[in-house]
Amino acid sequence: MNIVVIGAGGVGGYFGGKLAQAGFDVTFIARGKHLEAIKNKGLQVKSILGDFTVHPNVTDAIQDIKNPDLVILGVKSWQVTEVAKVLKSVITKNTMVLPLQNGADNADKLLTVLPKENVLAGLCKIVSKVELPGVINHFTFEPEIVFGEYDNSKSDRIKQLKSVFDKAGFKNTLSDDIHLDIWKKFLFIGTISGIGALTRAVFGVMRETPGIRKIIKDTAQEMVAVANAKGVGLTQQDLAMIINVIDKLDYNTTASMQRDIMEGKPSELENFNGYIVSQGKLLGVDTPTNAFIYHCLLPQEMKARS
Asked: What's the pTM?
């Protein structure tokens, strides 16, 4: 299988690295010092499950790829649409495009640009980062990809992809309801990221501060209401599960969007709290907590993007 991984960061670098290690033909799209390090020394993955180094193809030009069978998107949510526009000219009618970003609407963004037969839906669970150019550090939690056809059908190609991921040796799940699974993850990341950026506090501090804990729960409750209005069956049990996960995570944990905002980088604010606010307006669901977080963080986001 000819596989292209766009974005060789903590997500794409780990899963793409595992696919390359298993012997698949993998090409990474990377930039700058990261590109040069991979080109000259290979991609080094440091992992709690075992370190390894691979020497895949790597380029900075999506236009250079030829007839990919699978494209894994490891870029940020706000980059998906622009990447899809470039991809459109290089994929074939048989290419599968699998988005693994945080957020609820990445497959929908792809469908605004690409033919529906190209688009899968998915998510990943991993705690990893680029430690140095050419070096990925996976430092906790067993990585997993959850994926499926957009319409949840069990097609031959999706079963084949399951076998590819199995051969690569990482945990993976062919979902029975991929949109519900995406929203379950989104409920977690969307609940904690914005308020983390606003308070600039670690999870332990936030969950132990009564006023902030209430904001976390209110944020999640609004997300459940929006999901339900969209026909996605999130429940109060899902909300309770997410709060339980937050309570059990390492005290000093922070979210990636939170770190991006604190470092003055462009973030996924528009795709997290901003998405809930915009969908709430569209569907007639009140989202005052998400709106407060979103509008308080928006000036920093605009400054980072300028």
From this structure: 0.94
